[in-house]
Each structure stands twice: as structure tokens, then as C-alpha cells.
Amino acid sequence: MTFGSVYACELTEEFVELRKEAYQEIRSAFNACQESVRAYHYWDAYAACVEAKGDALKGSKCAHAFQQREPLSEVAFQHCEVLRPNEEQAEEYVATLMAEREVARCEGEREP
Asked: Among the four residues 45, 52, 99, 112, which has the most C-beta atoms within 10 Å?
């Protein structure tokens, strides 16, 4: 058992890149869900504006409609929360990738 801090080392470039990639990948579904909620509400507001004007050609004047609506509530994003990875899941995924790719966390450390 090591009693020193695991963070008291110089991280390898490979580990830094792997960790960045892992966090982006593990959060991709959550981020995509949030973006789709924003896109839905934008196009909903845009379509309502076009409908109110009665002419789709006037839609170019409706791009501002989303900004004029109330800010999205947390409820609008609630279904995305099940996709949000927690810190433990993220660290487990990083560890899995480290083992698969034989990447060391610290300089001078042997690959797992």
C-alpha cells in the first residue's frame, strides 16, 4: 500500500490526453441530451414565430424568438440527468482505458 498522494507526481502526456478523451467520451450522451433539449426549444420557438407571422418566408425574422422566451428550467433537462456520469464512473473508465492502452499515470511509473 502506498501512503503518498497519487497526485504528487508529474502526469505523463499520454495520461493527460487519455483522461481528456475519456471524460469527453463518457459525458457525450449527457452533453448530446442537453444540446438536443436546447435545439428542440429553439426550433419550437422559431416555428411558433413563423406560424404567428403566417408565412414561412418571414421565418428569417424569427431567429430572435428563442432569446425572447423564458430561460429553460431545470425540469426541461431533468431526463438528461440519468445520463450524467458521476466522478466514480469517470475514474473507473479512465482506469479501464489506462489498462487497455498500457498508459502510466506518472512519469517514471511502469505501465500497469
From this structure: 45
Cell 431526463 -> residue: 79
The 8-class DSSP code of residue 60 comes to G
C-alpha cell at 15: 495520461
CA-to-CA dists, residue 77 to 37, 45, 65, 68, 89, angstroms: 7, 17, 20, 19, 21
* Cβ-contact 9, 105 below 8 angstroms: yes
Widest CA span of the chain, in angstroms?
Answer: 72
Kindly write down the DSSP assignment for every residue of 68-110, as one continuous string.
Answer: HSPPPPHHHHGGGGGGPPPHHHHHHHHHHHHHHHT--SBTTPP
pLDDT in tens, 22-79: 999 999 999 999 999 999 988 888 888 888 877 666 556 777 766 767 778 888 899 9
Helix, strand or coil, per DSSP, at residue 11: strand
Q: Contact 57/66 with Cβ under 8 angstroms?
A: no
